[in-house]
What we know:
41% strand, three-stranded mixed β-sheet, 3 helices, alpha/beta, Hypothetical Protein Aq_1857, Chain: A
Amino acid sequence: MIGCKKIFSCTKNNWQGITITNNASDQIKKLMIQNHNAKGVLLSIKQYGCAGFSYVFNIIEKPTEKHLLFKLNGAYIYVQEEEMPLIDGTSIDFIQKGFNQIFKFNNPKAQHACRCGESFGV
């Protein structure tokens, strides 16, 4: 598991946290290098698709105290604490097959997903 930011206690909140593979870590670092102001990526969710929610990655330049920090090998992922109940325990991988590349999310909270894999429901 990736560590929790100092103001956040995984055990106090009974969170499992967010984990990422080395492939995902490498790709996040590449995204951070492309934007020299980047402090990491913000993992958030939005209402989307037929199943209810979708994952969103955005570059974050100014994290706040409301963001939880998870890191691995120089890759930084920020999450807003209020979104943790929907994504806690999620593992993130980065998959490349030919010209196709995608971040893959394995969320134990997801009870169903749409057929195309773009949205999930809890």
